[in-house]
């Protein structure tokens, strides 16, 4: 990026690629359906009893709601900005507002999922302390903490204290922190994305191992052990779902920064590769409901329950799907 003072009065127009309109259309269509799927999944978490009664349902619903916001608004707008900046002049001050919104939402979502992962870790590895982290005050803290973390990470660039959000002069980044973008692009993602990602990875790996071992250890046929095994099975199912979502998150979000760091010449020599990697990022949260439905039996039933309710209200029909009362 051009870091001199004249940049403040300039705008950037980048070369237009013939595949860009198709790329934009694909992103917008998939994010639209992903937003609808996240909305249904969010409602299912709130209204379907086996999901709503979970001690961590508030935190999980918070994560799904943020996925909905990112998929329905943040990434589609960012994709449009990416397209627009290749055809028309954008004002140099544009990113001072939009950049703050974008990075705030992304880092908020990352930290919300990290809090969810730590919650699942305590429930599986430190079960004696789990009641303490599922009290009303603890759940409020779990919801508020990611917002505070994102505010702190973005404060300097938003308030323009040594940093500010600027328009990039190279595709595909629309808005980046500057003017010292080298250090800013390391420090901000470190605290906003990479540290929470490490927490998520460690937590879900430990949860998966612990839950799998617990399920295998269940013995006996008396009713108490049966109820316990059901709870352990459900806990393992939820953890498995979230772990799969985390693996997809890594697959969708890390190829672009890793490739741009280790293989910049190869990356910027291929627009198709840039389209693919950036498209994965912009669609990452849109795919999560697919994993919820595919992996979790409760979410399959919950989504069916919500869709039947919607169908019944729209056409005046009684729901054909009856939710299970025991889970």
Can you give a write-up of this model?
The protein has 327 residues and is mainly alpha-helical. It is 72% helix and 2% strand. It has 12 helices and 2 strands, in the order αααααββααααααα. A two-stranded antiparallel sheet has the order 1-2. Helix 3 runs antiparallel to helix 4. The longest helix has 37 residues, at 181-217. Mean pLDDT is 82; it is low at 1-14 and 219-223.
Write a concise synopsis of the structure shown.
The protein has 327 residues and is mostly helical. 72% of the residues lie in helices and 2% in strands. The chain is globular and about 55 Å long.
Reconstruct the topology from this structure:
Elements: H1 20-47, H2 49-52, H3 57-84, H4 94-125, H5 136-158, E1 164-167, E2 175-178, H6 181-217, H7 223-253, H8 255-262, H9 264-268, H10 271-283, H11 288-295, H12 297-315
Antiparallel strand pairs: 1-2
Helix pairs in contact: 1-3, 1-10, 1-11, 1-12, 3-4, 4-5, 4-6, 6-7, 7-10, 7-11, 11-12
Categorize the overall geometry. Answer: globular
Radius of gyration: 22 Å
Mean pLDDT: 82
Low-confidence stretches: 1-14, 219-223
Q: Helix amount, in percent?
A: over 70%
Strand residue content: under 5%
In spatial order, strands of the major sheet run 1-2
Order of helical and strand elements = HHHHHEEHHHHHHH
The span between the termini is 55 Å
What structural category arises from helix and sheet content?
Answer: mainly alpha
How many strands?
2
Number of helices: 12
Biggest sheet descriptor: 2 strands, antiparallel
